[in-house]
Specification:
Leuzip_CREB; 13% strand; 46% helix; two-stranded antiparallel sheet; bZIP; bZIP_sf; alpha+beta; coiled coil; elongated; two-stranded antiparallel ribbon; DNA-binding
DNA sequence: ATGCTATGCCGTCAAAGTAC
DNA sequence: GTACTTTGACGGCATAGCAT
């Protein structure tokens, strides 16, 4: 199921078939939220161009996000129209692939081939599910594989909320430190130190969870965008096929 | 108005990955 | 080996929409 037409930017994608534009994106968005992280993951700020995603377990579909047209890629911080040129089109045809544009902004896409979560029965415990599921590599790992780890942080879209949160964290942490520095002596110090460490850990994890959710949302937006693009392409191909058929009919008559 | 359901966000835990 | 980071899972809470 690797149907793909490159010449005129038209692609037939099974993902698009049977669905009308307008309905599909929300449906995908809903389903994406229940995706296992082992299925596929993506960190991107702007233009994801070509990708291969595993569908229904074993099948893979190559797809293109408008390499020769204007593509709108939404980011978490803003909605950013991105004009895609051939220069930053990179085809990803294997799992665990990473794509990166030739231009400034870094885009990383990882596609992990796994079984579907549907393979787990209801009786199986979450623990067992966790044991079975393979964890996907982290963003850092992906970037290290790229050999560009040092640009990781800088290239991610700056977050207004993030910076605000960071300052909040700093102030919260320092206030906690002040609080615990005036704590007891003797055994009390140990207890308070443990409590302070726990507070700090919770605080950091709180922030990490926020960031993780932000990335996830970004990923979902990219997928939604992909759906929209593929639907467009599918319609283009259908129209093209129709006109070719008519042309052929006229010649044979 | 009330109850129900769906949805979204958040904090926390746990486990795997990563850095040192 | 250990501390730190990342992220799925889970439960709680708030809100919106709908049916009664």
């Amino acid at each position: 199921m690797e149907s793909m037409v490159e010449e005129n930017g038209s692609t037939v994608d099974p993902l698009s078939q049977g669905s009308q534009s307008g309905d599909a994106a929300p449906a995908i968005a809903t389903s994406v939220q229940s995706l296992s992280r082992s299925q596929h993951h993506l960190v991107a700020s702007t233009s994801i161009v070509q990708l291969t995603l595993p569908l229904s377990g074993t099948t893979q579909v190559q797809s293109v996000i408008q390499p020769n047209q204007q593509s709108v890629i939404q980011t978490a911080t803003n909605i950013q129209p991105v004009a895609l040129s051939k220069a930053n089109v990179i085809l990803v045809s294997k799992p665990n692939s990473v794509i990166q544009t030739t231009q400034g902004s870094l885009q990383t896409l990882q596609v992990v081939e796994t079984g579907s979560d549907d393979s787990f029965s209801d009786e199986e415990s979450p623990k067992k599910r966790r044991d079975i599921l393979t964890r996907r590599p982290s963003y850092r790992k992906i970037l290290n594989d790229l050999g560009g780890g040092e640009i990781a942080e800088g290239r991610l879209p700056p977050l207004e909320s993030s910076s605000e949160c960071d300052s909040n964290v700093d102030s919260e942490v320092s206030s906690h430190s002040l609080h615990y520095q005036t704590a007891y002596t003797g055994h009390g110090v140990v207890v308070e130190d443990a409590a302070r460490k726990r507070e700090l850990r919770l605080l950091k994890n709180r922030e990490a969870a926020r960031e993780c959710r932000r990335k996830k949302k970004e990923y979902i937006k990219c997928l939604e965008n992909r759906v929209a693009v593929l639907e467009n392409r599918n319609q283009t191909l259908i129209d093209e096929l129709k006109s070719l058929k008519e042309l052929y009919q006229q010649k044979t008559d």
